[in-house]
Every structure is written in C-alpha cells, then in structure tokens.
Amino acid sequence: MTGITIALSKGRIFDETLPLLAAAGIVPTENPETSRKLIIETNQPDVRVVIVRATDVPTYVQYGAADIGVAGKDVLIEHGGEGLYAPLDLKIAKCRMMVAIPEGFDYQNAVRQGNRLKVASKYIKTAREHFAAKGVHVDLIKLYGSMELAPLAGLADAIVDLVSTGGTLKANKLVACEHIMDISSRLVVNQAALKVKRETLQPIIDAFARAVEK
Ligand code: ATP
Ligand code: MG
Q1: How far apart, in Å, are the Cα atoms of 1 and each of 14, 47, 199?
Q2: What is the pLDDT of residues 94-112, one digit of tens each?
Q3: Can you list the domains of the chain with their CATH numbers?
Q4: Could you give the ipTM of this predicted complex?
Q5: Is the backbone of residue 178 left (phi > 0), alpha (psi -120 to 50) or beta?
Q6: Does residue 145 line the site of ligand 1, with CB under 6 A?
Q7: What is the mean pLDDT of residues 81-89?
Q8: Cα–Cα distances in Å, from 46 out to 9, 50, 74?
Q9: Which of 72, 145, 172, 175 has an alpha carbon within 20 to 30 A of 84's alpha carbon?
Q10: Are 214 and 17 a contacting pair, CB within 8 Å?
C-alpha cells in the first residue's frame, strides 16, 4: 500500500495548504466547506485528504491514520508530539499567542503585587509554561472556545489566546498585554510512514519546502 493520506482541518488550514498541495501536483476534487465528505479524493489516485478538527490532526498522524498533516504550533505544543516528525514551518495561518485582559485592568501591577491570577485558556500547557517562566502565580481554567467571554463573565482575570487582527478582543473590550510566541502551521509527518513510504512522501515534503521558500 503506497497510498498517502493527508490530514487537514477545514477553514484557514485547508485554504492555505491548497497552494502547497498544488506545488506538489495535488489538487483535492472537493472543498470541505461545501461538501460534507470527511474523506476527499484528489487528482492523484493514490492521495486522499481526511478532514479532522484542528486539534485532532497530530493524533491522526501520530497513530498513522494519516501519513502527513498540517497543524498549528499552538496545537502541536498542547499535543506534545510523540511519534511526529515536524520538518517544515509552512508559514501559513500566522498569528500570535497572547495574554489578554479587560480594558482598564492593571495587569502589570497585579503581577508586581504577586497577586494570584485566574487565567482561562484552551492552551493550558502553553499558559502554564509562560507564567511559570515569569514566576507569576496563576490558577488555570481550561476552556474549549469563546475565551473572550471568560473575563467579561467573571470567570477569569485574563485569557491566553491566539490573536491576529485583535478585532475579536476589541469587540469584547479586551486588550492584549503580553506576547507569548508567534504561531504558524507546520507540516507533521508520521515517523514510520516516512521510512516505509519515503519514495512517495519525500517529493511531497520537498515540493512543500520549495513552495514555502517562494
Ligand atoms: P475550531 O474553530 O474548529 O474550534 P480551531 O479554532 O482550532 O478549531 P481554526 O480556527 O481553523 O481551528 O484554527 C486552526 C489553526 O489556525 C490554529 O490552530 C492556529 O494555529 C491558527 N489560527 C487560529 N486562529 C487564527 C487567526 N485568527 N489567524 C491566523 N491563524 C489562526
Ligand atoms: Mg477557530
């Protein structure tokens, strides 16, 4: 079996990976936005795309249900990365991991005073490491979405979330107050598949690498 399965999430990852796939001569025959199919064929008979949640991409690739995939650095940090080889920064789906607070909250002062902060996030591992490195005491609250609501509803003093334009923060009267890291998406490859299917996989990886450098 030399068939290749590529795990992608729909939305920006799928859209921004299309030009890279095209550079490798791979064109999906359907758009997951309009098709309800979770397995999408491509112009290459031996290449298919599976559509999974962004946070599930590393899992599919780790267990070999997909040979390669595209996942954000945010997702990869939380997942860990065992069994995964991440050879390429694809420089797509770029944003920043930030600490954000309600307008008017004196975060720096609270930190200086050594106050214990309640921080809500989908990115518990990233948040824990960030505040531990700063020596700030935090109670972390795990959320799965709509982080912006947490400070407004009184669930948390601050959030750790991805920010691109800042529009969502602004609409909810929040401001970013600390930059944690720049985020972009990476190509992830199943380590065993890379050995067994190198003849098929390596040209795809190389084509992606050349397309990223353009
Ligand atoms: P879902 O929306 O299904 O809950 P998700 O939010 O993880 O899942 P996307 O919004 O498609 O899925 O985000 C996928 C990846 O794109 C994220 O893991 C992150 O790396 C990146 N990303 C998230 N938000 C932005 C943004 N505003 N601008 C650019 N890239 C982003
Ligand atoms: Mg999202």
Answers
A1: 25, 11, 12
A2: 999 999 999 999 999 999 9
A3: 4-94+184-213 (3.40.190.10), 95-183 (3.40.190.10)
A4: 0.95
A5: beta
A6: yes
A7: 92
A8: 20, 13, 30
A9: 145
A10: no
Does the C-beta of 193 come closer than 6 Å to ligand 1?
no
> Over the stretch 24-57, which tens digit does the pLDDT of each residue have?
999 999 999 999 999 999 999 999 999 999 999 9
Q: Using CA of residue 31, residue 35, residue 37, residue 43, what is the dihedral sign?
A: negative
* CB of 17 sitting under 6 A from ligand 1: no
Give the model's pLDDT for residue 133. 97
Reported as a single tens digit per residue, the pLDDT across 133-188 is: 999 999 999 999 999 999 999 999 999 999 999 999 999 999 999 999 999 999 99
Residues 114 and 191: their CA atoms lie apart, in Å, by: 44
What spacing in Å lies between the alpha carbon of 114 and ligand 2's midpoint? Answer: 33
Q: Which amino acid is at 91?
A: K
